[in-house]
Design a protein that fits this description.
The chain has 278 residues and is of the alpha/beta class. It contains 9 helices and 11 strands. It has helices at residues 38-50, 65-68, 71-74, 85-106, 182-195, 212-232, 240-253, 262-265, 267-277; strands at residues 5-10, 19-25, 28-32, 55-59, 81-84, 119-121, 126-129, 132-140, 147-154, 162-166, 200-203. A hairpin with a 2-residue loop joins strand 2 (19-25) and strand 3 (28-32). The N and C termini lie far apart (55 Å).
C-alpha cells in the first residue's frame, strides 16, 4: 500500500476546471487548494468527509480565487491553512475586490465570505502533518501576484516525491496572464525545471505530467508575448481587431483547448508589461 494516496477533485468547466488535491494517509488527510464556486467547494467538502480520515491541514499554492475561495466550506476553524507569507498577504488584499468584481457575474455561486491562510510560513519550511512532509517553496510573482509550489514526501521517506505546482504550468488549457508578470513567470520556469527535475508534477489545471509541462508553458507564454508585440508595436493596449487576431493565433497554437476566453482577458495586461519593459 502506498504511503499516501493522491485524490484529484476537478471543478466544473464554468469554475475553470481547477484541481484540488486531497492527500490521504492512515493518519489523516491534507488538502491542497480549495475550488472557486460554492457548489464545487461543497462537493469537495463532501469528498473530504467521505475519505474516512480527519482533515489535518490545508495548503494554498497561490493568490487566485479559484484556489482559495472554497476555504470556508472545506476547513473548520480548527484546521490550519498554510501558505507563504506573500501568498497569505496577497489573498488578504485581493479577496474582497475579487468578490466585488465577480459576484455580480456568478451570483450566489461566489462565496460571500473568504478565509485568509492563518498559518503563513517562510520559504523552504517543511511541515510534518498526517505522516507527510510538506515543503513550501516561495516563487513570488509569476502567474499570479504571489505564487508558490509544494513538494510532498512521506515523513519516513518510504515513498516517492510529488510536486503541486498550482498554476505555474497549465496542462492542455489556455493560461491566465492577466496579472501581467509573464517575464517573471518565464524566469520562474527556468528555476522550476532545475528544482523539480524527475518529479511528478500536479498542476492546478489539467492532468499530471513531467518536465514537459514547463516546456509547454514556456512555449505558450513566448508565443503569446510575441503575438502581442507584433500586434501592438509597443502600444500598451489592443484594439478589438487586434484582440480578435490574438485569439485566433493562440487558438491555432492550442487548438480545441478549454478556457479560450482567457486569451483576451490578459491581452492588455501583457501589452502594458511589454511596453513598460522597452
Amino acid at each position: 500500500m502506498p504511503p499516501f494516496v493522491i485524490h484529484t477533485h476537478t471543478a466544473a468547466v464554468d469554475a475553470l476546471a481547477v484541481n484540488s488535491y486531497l492527500l490521504t494517509t492512515v493518519e489523516g488527510a491534507v488538502l491542497i487548494d480549495a475550488s472557486l464556486l460554492v457548489s464545487d467547494a461543497k462537493a469537495l467538502a463532501a469528498r473530504i468527509a467521505a475519505c474516512g480520515v480527519p482533515l489535518r491541514a490545508v495548503f494554498v499554492t497561490h493568490a487566485h480565487p479559484d484556489h482559495f475561495n472554497g476555504l470556508p466550506f472545506v476547513a473548520g476553524d480548527d484546521v490550519p491553512v498554510h501558505a507563504t507569507h506573500q501568498v497569505a498577504e496577497t489573498i488578504g488584499q485581493i479577496a474582497e475586490p475579487k468578490r466585488q468584481q465577480w459576484q455580480p457575474v456568478y451570483g450566489a455561486q461566489w462565496p460571500d465570505t473568504y478565509r485568509v491562510p492563518d498559518h503563513p510560513v517562510p520559504d523552504g519550511t517543511t511541515i510534518q502533518v498526517a505522516g507527510l512532509a510538506v515543503t513550501v517553496h516561495a516563487v513570488g510573482a509569476a502567474e499570479s501576484h504571489a505564487d508558490s509550489y509544494l513538494t510532498v514526501d512521506s515523513a519516513d521517506g518510504s515513498g516517492g516525491r510529488a510536486a503541486f505546482i498550482g498554476d505555474l504550468a497549465f496542462h492542455g488549457t489556455h493560461s491566465y496572464v492577466a496579472d501581467g508578470h509573464t517575464g517573471a513567470w518565464l524566469a520562474a520556469l527556468d528555476r522550476l525545471e532545475r528544482e523539480l527535475e524527475g518529479t511528478t508534477l500536479y498542476p492546478g489545471h489539467g492532468g499530471p505530467g513531467g518536465p514537459e509541462l514547463f516546456t509547454q508553458q514556456r512555449r505558450y507564454l513566448t508565443t503569446y508575448r510575441e503575438a502581442i508585440a507584433r500586434l501592438t508595436d509597443g502600444a500598451s493596449r489592443l484594439s478589438e481587431g487586434q484582440r480578435t487576431e490574438l485569439a485566433g493565433a493562440m487558438s491555432r497554437f492550442l487548438p480545441g483547448a478549454p478556457l479560450e476566453w482567457m486569451i483576451g482577458l490578459g491581452a492588455d495586461a501583457v501589452a502594458e508589461e511589454l511596453a513598460a519593459s522597452t
